[in-house]
Amino acid sequence: MKIESVFKDNLDDAAPSLKFTTVWQQHQKTGKNRFSFKKMVAVPVAALVSLVVLLMVGFSFAAIKDKTDYPFVNDTSVIGLWESVDLLDQPGQFVPGKNHSEDPLFLKQLVFYKDGGMLMAVNKGNAKLSPTQYTWTKGMVLDKQAKTNSKYDIKEINGTTYMFFEWKCGDYTYFHMEPPYFVLKKVNDKDYSDYQMTAKSDKIDYPFVNDPQLLGSWKSVDFVPAIEEFKPGTKLTPGELFLTRFDIAENGKIGGMTSQKEIPDDLLTWTKGLIIEKKGKVASKYEIKEIDGDTYLFYEWKNGNYIYSGMQPDYYVLKKVK
Fold this sequence. Notes:
The structure is a single chain. The protein folds into 3 domains: 3-58, no CATH class; 76-188, Lipocalin, CATH 2.40.128; 212-320, Lipocalin, CATH 2.40.128. The chain is built from 5 helices and 17 strands. The chain has helices at 3-11, 20-31, 45-58, 170-175, 304-307; strands at residues 80-88, 107-113, 117-122, 130-131, 135-137, 140-143, 148-157, 160-166, 181-188, 216-224, 243-248, 254-258, 268-271, 274-277, 282-291, 294-301, 314-320. It has a 9-stranded antiparallel β-sheet with strand order 4-3-2-1-9-8-7-6-5, with no helix packed on it. Strands 12-11-10-17-16-15-14-13 form an 8-stranded antiparallel β-sheet, with no helix packed on it.
């Protein structure tokens, strides 16, 4: 019997705040950035049953939301480029020159620049520095979208400057697990405020072709790595989605909302099969599918991961408002 099946059958009956399938998928998605599955061990069925009972009685899959509305406080010691050297459960485990992680580290580099700005590189796509939703204030890295507040601590060890950075991924937010720590070594003290990144751009000069199916209001219901991974009634990405709604009108007009603000009327336009952002020079494909009597729009999300890091876009899934 699989661990997933044991938890799902019991926990979903206990009516938690999030369905187990959602949390399990999120763990599989984000946990890969932390763990080596070579170290997994078998768990006795009796222990599993006990854990299920404990979870049914006292645990709810409510997402952790940290306080993120802190004022900016400068920290000159953090300015510059930092490169990951290890990933640990606790900072005290760090030994310079010894790597505790068997797998390549997901986080490759972090840049802190003046006034709270940051760049990040991960070992995915082209692994180059790109914009990130992270900001910083003294002692903390803030993600206002994911509602996480990650502490950082800088230490001098044997003449080298290291940062110990809490990694609050989905295991922290949805599984309430203690965050691990990335250890990063300082590379330089440069201010990267004017750092020039190579941006990928799409062909955007397409003639307008009408698509009556696209017209109307669409509400976001999920965010998935691939179209075939969407399952109606199961949310792969828990929590609040950044893109919340599209309002699509005649002659290429698009409005809508994100979780933070209204989408400007002149930001996006459309032609059959494509939603185009002319300023960012990206043309995102869309597909419309009928599933179980409902109409869904699958929209390529070409954010910084695509533009600067060369990654394949994920998809927003929007359901047509009847």
